[in-house]
């Protein structure tokens, strides 16, 4: 009878994950790792308490959108423009070339017939997962932090935009490019309006309803996400692009001290409800037996883990003049932490369209999960924190994958 209560078990996993993350292990394990592992434990391939269908599958989609919305809110282009952004773009271009070479090897087999999709999965960086780690260590304002913020931003935005163009089959390539320019123009106009057009009557209304039962500012943020969600689908793009763009717009519109209460409320809604359904749901739907039951697939996991490190880590050679030798390997490890949310989305689409074998998809997701667990831990060990590197008092770090 316990499998009739999926919400209870998913929220139980969501509560247990941060508690497990507090257990002193001598190194930091991201909460998302525990969420996925607990999802695997309660899923149909574990204890069988939750099935991935119906309500759980629907909430998984909403959680995915919420994850990318929060990733969009975290972006701050003012801190990365100039040399950091130029290096990040060059590095991601090099990653694309390395990813194409790696995907071409699999293309010669019947396992993966969509090398571009696989390339995008290998070229992601989990900026949201690593932001709290760098923020708690007081590294965001350092040279290392600014360079990584730029690399992580491109590693998160680039695959989203590329996948939206690649996956769209509703219009011709030129039409899609035109729609992308139009969409970017709408995003820019919305962001400019949110930052510049703040009539006092509207601001007073939002302040008055901030703590009322109507929660109008929170509902407005959710409406923006829903609006861009629908807009991208109408333009023929993947709706994750809309969720990400909505997060950017809301993030720019709520930049400043006065908007902190609204940001805290958005954190509470998304991290408290929507996002656990995505990460725990990822574990629920993850078929560990597909990896452990086939020796060939099991060997693919460490192979993909090595490919992730090569594809996103080797471009650190472009940073020789900007990073001291002791920081280059930690930078490469951080950059190689795959965005679990994007990898799941890309591989799900590949399996659904039968362009990626389910065994390869499981191996890539498994490698992405291991990258979240292993690479930040190694980076922290190789780059010890200064004694005074602590989080500001009263600061609550946000986490997104």
Q: Calculate Rg over CA atoms.
A: 21 Å
Percent helix, as a range, is: over 70%
Runs with pLDDT <50, length 5+?
A: 387-401
CATH architecture: Up-down Bundle
β-strand percent reads: under 5%
The CATH topology corresponds to Na+/H+ antiporter like fold
Coarse shape: globular
Q: What is the succession of H and E elements?
A: HHHHHHHHHHHHHHHHH
Give the N-terminus to C-terminus distance in angstroms.
33 Å
Number of spatially distinct domains: 1
Query: Which whole number gives the mean pLDDT?
Result: 81
Q: How many DSSP-defined strands? A: 0
Question: What's the helix count?
Answer: 17
**Main β-sheet description:** none
Explain how this protein is built:
This protein has one domain: Na+/H+ antiporter like fold (Up-down Bundle), CATH 1.20.1530. It is mainly α and 401 residues long. The C terminus is likely disordered. The chain has 17 helices and no strands.
List the helices and strands and how they pair.
Blueprint: H1 6-21, H2 31-42, H3 54-74, H4 83-107, H5 115-122, H6 127-136, H7 143-167, H8 173-196, H9 200-209, H10 216-235, H11 239-253, H12 260-285, H13 289-292, H14 295-313, H15 325-335, H16 340-352, H17 358-382
Main attributes of the structure:
401 residues; mainly alpha; Na+/H+ antiporter like fold; disordered C terminus
Brief overview, please?
The chain has 17 helices and no strands. It is mostly helical. Helix 2 (31-42) crosses helix 12, helix 5 runs antiparallel to helix 16 (340-352) and helix 8 runs parallel beside helix 11 (239-253).
